[in-house]
Amino acid sequence: MYSVAIVRPEKSLEPIEKVIQDNSFECRFYPYIYKELSDIDGIYEDCRRKCDVIFFSGELGYHYILKKFPDIRIPCAFTAYEPIDVLSILLHFQMNHKNIPLNRVFCDFLTETNRYMEVGKYLSESERPYFYTEKRYDYKHITEYAKKLWDKGKIDMILSRSINNLKALDDLQIPYVAVFPDEDMIRASIQHALDELRLSSITEEKRLSVLLRLPFTEEVEKEEQEYREAEVYHFLTTYRKERYYRFSIEKGFNQFAIRAAISPDTEIFPLLEEILMQCKKNLGFPFRLGIGLSSSDERSRYYAEHALMESNRYGRNDAFYMEEEGKLVGPLSQNVKLVKNYNNEKAIDFAKTQGIHENNILKLISLYELAPEKALNAQTVAELLGITSRSASRILAKLLALNLIRPGKEEGDSSEEKKKLRHGRPALHFHFVKESFEETFLPKNIEIS
Prior knowledge:
It is a single chain. By secondary structure, the chain is of the alpha/beta class. It has 16 helices and 17 strands. The strands form 4 sheets. It has a 7-stranded mixed β-sheet with strand order 10-11-9-12-13-14-15. Strand 10 (248-252) and strand 11 form a beta hairpin. The protein starts with a strand and ends in an 8-residue tail after the last helix.
């Protein structure tokens, strides 16, 4: 169910009250009232984490929020007048005020932004009312503009949609007719905003699946297992409530499945790192994370399961991520995000021939693609691959024998290097051999600069 913020002036509009009480929209409404346009700042801060759409009763608030927050990501809408609505308003005004010609009227809601509602197509310049032509659209400037027209004797009345500004017109003793949208207009505008949101969700939204597994060993007693599962559930529900996030939580045996819809413009890696960081911060026991992203729940779950398998193999409190078939990213706690490409047949064949686990070879290839000049030693390779230093040394020795890496200079000037040399345990460093490494593992049309 979508959540819609309804933002309107202090003076309550009865048609809006009636519309938001209608349950046919199948959404949740959060009503907000502002006295001054600056109040919208606080309204936005309150509703931006819990609302899918911010709907304004009029254009003024809509333009204010877009100007104040140009990078706003929540869709905004307002009760939109169509040209036929404006022509109807002008016709009714003329019928009720026959002694005031339209060219003696100022319409504060006909602006350059809405192209003056195309009134110029139907009325000549000598017949049409005065439009608001200034760039800054707020109460102060609307009032000043109206006062200038009034002081110069150019207008006899104002047609105003600026409901919160009517008192200022009273103080200036300028006659006005307040223009209120009717129920049908409000209903149609809200429905249009929801339709746009649903269409956007269908065409653009992606599905995120997070599998959080608790690796229970035989030593973990049943009571402790239940405690850990309860802690995870409490952490997830509390985090969801405090951050105003929307995601589903499904509990299984020693595993939790979290599903959420995310916008295509979401920066995915900061989000994934936030998930991992919160788990490390709040869970004081072992866990494994597998995360998948796709356009469907089924595919994202499939990717998450593959990522979780890799996380289980890695054997640490960390996360892996998959968004594309055959490509795993992780561990996410590392500054270097390694991508294991299982579509690299040359690497898979090499791993089988040399007796090296394919996961380790694929990660080293990813490291080369990301940082071809990086120096390697057994410790750094062990940390990146999630293996022991002894296993890392064996892999490096085999790659050295095949001329895929070369030894670096070990006679460092640092006291630490000299200390290691004195104890007979030099810290051997290696570098990739560009030509042979690329020829062995990369397609011929790919070259790392």
